[in-house]
């Protein structure tokens, strides 16, 4: 085992995910170390989002092994996995899940108390949505919701960040801000796994993994 493998915060070893007759990801192996950004690239249907879901312990593999900060599917309970994600993982989804009856500020502190209010305020300002803090999600554009989701994920100072097409719904300036923030988080020691089509996002990655689309 290499030093990179020993220091990996995220590790997939020969992981396959099958839904019925459809193979969403086949025999995929990679690691992401602390302080590193790895970008998953490939055409639609190549398995990028599936790889993110598997690596973050949101769905179990059909075969193979997944390890996230020393925790995998074998030897851990659902409660232990949930606590690990709540405590140490920032998640940026393509579709941000905000509670409609809570304000932006309420959503930022809803999941757990590990979100640093000062950090989040600075991020909201940097992302251009600080003025939206008291609004309900229904009054935000899709791009504004995405930027709120980024602040929520990174404001907890996570050890690991999973970002599934984090710049897909925002304008070019916001996309550059988001990728710059991901780079800063990685430079502070977090492991970042990023699924993207964005050229600039690829450029800030330490490594790029091309996933095949032949299923």
CATH class of the domain at 34-56 and 87-210: Alpha Beta
Q: In angstroms, what is the radius of gyration? A: 17 Å
Task: Give the termini separation.
Answer: 30 Å
CATH homolog superfamily of the domain at 34-56 and 87-210: P-loop containing nucleotide triphosphate hydrolases
Q: What report would you give on this structure?
A:
The chain has 215 residues and is α/β, with parallel strands linked by helices. It has a domain at 34-56 and 87-210: 3-Layer(aba) Sandwich (Rossmann fold). The chain has 8 helices and 8 strands; from the N terminus they run H-E-E-E-H-E-H-E-H-H-H-E-H-E-H-E. The strands form 2 sheets. Strands 5-6-7-3-8 form a 5-stranded parallel β-sheet, sandwiched between helices. A hairpin with a 2-residue loop joins strand 1 and strand 2 (22-33). Helix 5 (117-126) runs antiparallel to helix 6 (142-154). The chain is globular and about 45 Å long. The model has no long low-confidence stretch (mean pLDDT 89).
What are the key terms here?
Rossmann fold, 5-stranded parallel β-sheet, 8 helices, globular
């Amino acid at each position: 085992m290499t030093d990179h493998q020993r220091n990996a915060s995220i590790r997939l070893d020969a992981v396959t995910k099958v839904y019925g007759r459809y193979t969403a990801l086949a025999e995929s192996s990679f690691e992401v170390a602390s302080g590193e950004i790895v970008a998953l690239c490939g055409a639609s249907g190549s398995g990028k989002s599936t790889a993110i879901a598997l690596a973050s312990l949101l769905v179990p593999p059909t075969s193979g092994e997944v390890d996230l900060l020393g925790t995998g599917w074998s030897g851990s309970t659902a409660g232990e996995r949930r606590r690990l994600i709540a405590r140490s993982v920032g998640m940026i989804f393509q579709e941000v899940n905000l509670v409609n009856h809570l304000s932006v500020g309420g959503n930022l502190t809803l999941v757990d108390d590990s979100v640093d209010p000062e950090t989040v305020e600075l991020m909201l300002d940097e992302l251009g949505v600080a003025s939206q803090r008291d609004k309900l999600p229904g009054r935000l554009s899709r791009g504004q919701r995405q930027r709120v989701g980024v602040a929520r994920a990174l404001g907890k100072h996570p050890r690991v960040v999973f970002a599934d097409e984090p710049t897909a719904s925002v304008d070019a300036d916001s996309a550059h801000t988001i990728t710059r923030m991901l780079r800063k988080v990685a430079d502070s020691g977090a492991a970042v796994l990023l699924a993207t089509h964005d050229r600039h996002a690829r450029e800030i990655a330490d490594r790029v993994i091309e996933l095949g689309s032949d299923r």
